[in-house]
Design goal:
Blueprint (H helix, E strand, L loop, with lengths): L3 H8 L1 H6 L16 E4 L20 E6 L2 E4 L16
Antiparallel strand pairs: 1-2, 2-3
Length: 86
Amino acid sequence: MLPLASAVAKMSGQTAAVLGLSDRGRIEVGAAADLVLFDAARVRDAARYDAPVTPAEGILRVYVNGRLAFMPGTEVTEASGKVLCA
């Protein structure tokens, strides 16, 4: 399909640029700390027609605005994000 680097760029920096989100989509001082830590050898969509909200496999952590938003087996109760576009 796509090389990993191209897929990551399309899902982060390129998308943020198209949507005009100047503080998103890159890792640098002053940008929002939205990060996904994943195992490239294991990451895959696990959702199916009969189980559409099954989390992807291989996602180890997700940080939104520098705060933990997802970790398998851990309940995160405090929301740290906000709707950026509607």
